[in-house]
Amino acid sequence: MDTKTLKTLLLSLKTGKTSLNEALSILKSLPYEDIDFAKLDHHRHIRSGVPEVIFAGNKKTEDIIHIANAMLEKSGRFLITKASEETYKRLNIRKAKFYPTSGIISCGDIKKKQGNILLISAGTSDIPVAEEAEVTASFLGNKTERLYDVGVAGIHRLLAHKELIKKARVIVVAAGMEGALPSVVGGLTDKPVIAVPTSVGYGTSLGGLTALFAMLNSCVPGIAVVNIDNGFGAGCLAHRINIMRRK
């Protein structure tokens, strides 16, 4: 349940369109719903502006399906990260959509999107992480744009899109290898830049640690850095910055 839905319910109760017992029935699962093996936090969107999201890693497929259906019943939507195509097929929910590149399943879109979040990837190998950020941000109600494969090995590819960078409200940059691209982007804009190190690279990339350390030690002030391959976290942070601008 989000703030808009709660306001609608309370107004309906006030005007008599919804009875007290009906309202109590709807609200009884707040602040969470206990389904034995999990406690679903339906209240989270009201508190933080971001609903609880299902992380599919290390979960049984049947448990993921159970959680997704419980969320769908209460809010009409859900987001699953690190999911497989098999899980998507077994969900068998017509309006759900699977993004094979990022491994995300989303259900229930927000039609009226606002703001402008730009997702940049250094190379095509970084696209899965950038897409995870994009799908997350879009699910949360943000307009998104993509700028892929513009890494520092061919910096002219990035510089050819200065206007796209200029009009963005928030920029997410996914990069592996030496992780230099967020610093370059940060030097071209006064907008918030969220750096996402990816685990792409050869031996001394150390599974993304080299990119992470490079981003943390950027000489460009004000760059935020999230965890390795954490496109979801970057999408959530970009959303929160974007809604602050709207307010």
Structure characterization notes:
The chain is α/β, with parallel strands linked by helices. It folds into 2 domains: 99 residues, no CATH class; 133 residues, 3-Layer(aba) Sandwich (Rossmann fold), CATH 3.40.50. Helices cover 41% and strands 18% of the residues. Strands 8-7-9-10-11 form a 5-stranded parallel beta sheet. α6 crosses α11. It is globular and about 60 Å long. The mean pLDDT is 88.
Task: Identify the strand order in the major beta sheet.
Answer: 8-7-9-10-11
Contiguous uncertain segments of 5+ residues: none
* Helix/strand class: alpha/beta
> What is the CATH level 1 assignment of the largest domain?
Alpha Beta
What's the number of domains?
2
Mean pLDDT: 88
Query: Helical percent range?
Result: 40-55%
Query: What is the CATH architecture assignment of the largest domain?
Result: 3-Layer(aba) Sandwich
How many extended strands? 11
Described by the principal axes of the CA atoms, the overall outline is globular
Helices and strands in order:
Blueprint: H1 3-15, H2 20-27, E1 33-34, E2 39-40, H3 44-48, E3 54-55, H4 61-75, E4 78-81, H5 85-91, E5 96-99, E6 104-107, E7 114-121, H6 127-139, E8 142-147, H7 156-159, H8 162-167, E9 170-175, H9 181-186, E10 193-197, H10 209-216, E11 224-225, H11 231-246
Parallel strand pairs: 3-4, 7-8, 7-9, 9-10, 10-11
Antiparallel strand pairs: 1-2, 4-6, 5-6
Helix pairs in contact: 6-11
